[in-house]
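Interim report to the steering committee. The following record documents the input for Cytochrome P450 (509 residues).
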Amino acid sequence: MGFSIFSPTRSLDGVSGFFQVVFLLSLCLVLFKAVQFYLRRQWLLKTLQKFPSTPSHWLWGNHQKDKDLQQILTWVEKFPSACLQWLSGSRVRVLLYDPDYVKVILGRSVSDPGYGLLLLNGKKWFQHRRMLTPAFHYDILKPYVRIMADSVNTMLDKWEKLIEQDHPMEVFHYISMMTLDTVMKCAFSYQGSVQLDEQSHNQYIVSSIIRNSRSYTKAVEDLNNLTFHRIRSVFYWNNTIYKMSSDGRLFHHACQLAHEHTDGVIKMRKAQLQNEEELEKVKKKRRLDFLDILLLSKMQDGKSLSDEDVRAEVDTFMFEGHDTTASGISWIFYALATHPEHQQRCREEVQSVLGDGTSVTWDHLDQMPYTTMCIKEAMRLYPPVPNVSRELNTPVTFPDGRSLPKGITVAISIYGLHHNPRFWPNPKVFDPSRFAPDSSRHSYAFLPFSGGARNCIGKQFAMNEMKVAVALTLLRFELLPDPTRIPVPLFRLVLKSKDGIHLRLKKLR
């Protein structure tokens, strides 16, 4: 009797053997990863033994869901200068909240891979930073004040139509649209208004930007949450597994929405610069806007920026210029609402400078010292970016002699730094006098815009916008807290509130 290779018995034996091989290979891979995990953890424990830590689970680490800020305050009081934050058994970062420690790190170069000023390193970062710095010269920022005022007043006009007397309102959404409106007009030469639904636009590109702007703010919120949770999930380390997960698919969709918005902005401006009259007008400017610099400038080697470089810088500034500023303004409003005596003093100062508020200029912004003190104190309590991480590309030694090797991740806890009782007595108390002109403090104790060579390039832009928003709002409304919905600060890439920021707005006569 002949034997066929296609016989059922032969086929089953082949399938069985294949699965045995797959099982053995999988077992070997799991064992290899387990050994790798163990050796990495043992190396970390030995290398970082001089840095204290609270007890941590070998797999889950020592962070508690949505209690990071409370943990940080406990660590700041318990462990001087720095401690360990275990994200998992083999993933850890050294948390810094001492100004002298922070100064050492911010004075160094970093090795973060990526694109955009936020992530670039070395020569390319220096080239981009030098190229974009003129976009934030005071000659450029001066006329932006009027644009900021227009955007703020558009938001306040909406609020007047929406509120009833003492009716509570979730303000972050409206502030976020206002800051996006501002950055679009100032940095990207946009002529419309992303805040106004009733505007009609004939051009497809412009109308798509209006639609995408609303999707963009939601995409940024999703990316903020998803990135934060991925860092802390042991199951999402692997890119393949993450892409297959529901969070990974949502992350990809949010990235697409964000890129559609920035691509639309770039496409619109490129189309405008195809017009010779517009191009000549731009070239005659003494100083260029942010996007015009990106599209027209040449790098030192004579080559234009790649499309990838342009998009990366637009992505970075679009996010940094609207979401962090919206967070800052929202928390400033809440701080003033809960401290009416300081709010009234700011209002009186603004009234003395602006009168009826029909005109706000660059010169006015330096004539509101007490309002500026309150803004800074609110940012101390509620820093828009609570944490900045760096991976060491060379070993480092701190002032007390403790050292870290290359490859270790350090996290500058701006929230912890701003609440460190060694440098800020009674750190939970809102006290604007900390920022009085004659006050003194460590130069690295207050870092709402980070510090060192890689500080926020748009910090003056953001401060101006905060001053304009606070001044014009206090002229038209009294801010009152909603006692039924007290905001709970939530640790994310940008500081948010767990259920939004609800305030009662009382129209001033």
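The chain is about 55% helix and 10% strand. The committee is asked to note this result when reviewing the revised timeline.
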